[in-house]
Amino acid sequence: MNQLTLIMKREYLTKVRNKSFIIMTFLSPLIFVGIFALVAYLSNLNNDTVRTIYVMDESGLFSEEFVSSPHLQYKMIFNSSLEEAKKDTERDEVNGLLYIPKMEKLEDFSRGITFYSEDSPSITTMGNINRMLENKVNTLKLKESGIDSEMIKNLHINISANQETFKGQETSKLGAGLKLAFGGAAGYLLFMFIIIYGNMIMRSVIEEKTSRVIEVIISSVKPRLLLLGKIFGTTLAGLTQFLIWVVLILVLMTVVTSLFGIDAASMSPSQQALDQSIDGGTQKLVQEFIMEINNLPIANLIVMFIFFFIGGYLLYASLYAAVGAAVDSETDTQQFMMPILMPLILAVYVGVFTVIDNPHGTVSQVFSFIPFTSPVVMLMRIPFGVPLWQQILSVSLLFLTFFGTVWFAAKIYRVGILMYGKKPTYKEIFKWLKY
After folding, report:
1. How many angstroms separate the CA atoms of 115 and 135, rounded?
2. Which of 353, 389, 396, 403 is nearest to 374 (CA)?
3. Tell me: the pLDDT tens digits for 106-146?
4. Which of 16, 71, 202, 431 is positioned for an S-S bond with 272, CB 3.0–4.6 A?
């Protein structure tokens, strides 16, 4: 155990004292916050833009429908031909010209209205215009048929079935998306951590192998202890870097937003769309959001995230270390990386395409017990409510597989760490397991 502690300490200090490690630890948050500030600034510029649209209504039916807003201005054109209106639109460099011809029948408006512009208009702008025209034409059609449109509107009843569990806990449609977002974020974070720091372990093993330092170390330390020491030491270094990132990003985000007056809400795709979405239903949406946050098993999510995060990372880290021991350079690792990455990629696809549709289905449950996919799939299932025994069983299988993988990796590590000048094949690696 003393040897394991010494190896972990050596590996940890070697990593955190590395110049590139220190530079990236402090540079990465700066880059992240810089990108955030740039996107927010560009979004502010986009949202401050006032769009102007000329409207030529020859029918005279829509003149009162075009009400300007702070971000979209309508200007009516009268006593002008279509060609003159087009030239005026181009000369004034406005966003476009909406031409509404005079029609004999209301049905003809469905194909007779044209929007002229230099460039393609935004989807939001065209959607709002089409919706406004459609509502007006439908109202006129009802009136033409002798039907009071206001009466139809008043007679219309919206149905939204309440959702509640058998235990009496209220839920909503918003809850499914929120649960998927929490589970997806946890699974994606683990996926990225494995990729980044698994490669760090692999490169560390390759460097020591090529520098022949490992020959001195292996003479006094068992391969399994050396392998575990490298995994645990690099993991601690990775967690240190990750925690520094979180703290620096929070501090820098606070400083940047307050110093430059950046509003994170301004990064929404369209301020105009946001303005139009604020209605009586917004308060209900906020209430549903708060209710669903309270319904989430936060404590369960945090505890299981820690277990699956540690277990999943250690499992794949041992495989990365074995690959590093089997080759002489990083370019030779490509043939061995695909079998390691495939379960991770499969876990992400299973999580996205099955958990979202049926979190308690057979496929979701099976993959949440397979150790190579369970860290991602089970983390995505837990917000939807997974029995505690299933979570404990999945974690137990994960750590048991880790210990088995360490034994497997140590066998490869023991032989491969002293092999030079030859690219091993899968057949040769299989022979190493018998030594």
Report:
1. 18
2. 396
3. 777 777 888 888 877 777 778 888 888 888 888 888 887 77
4. 71
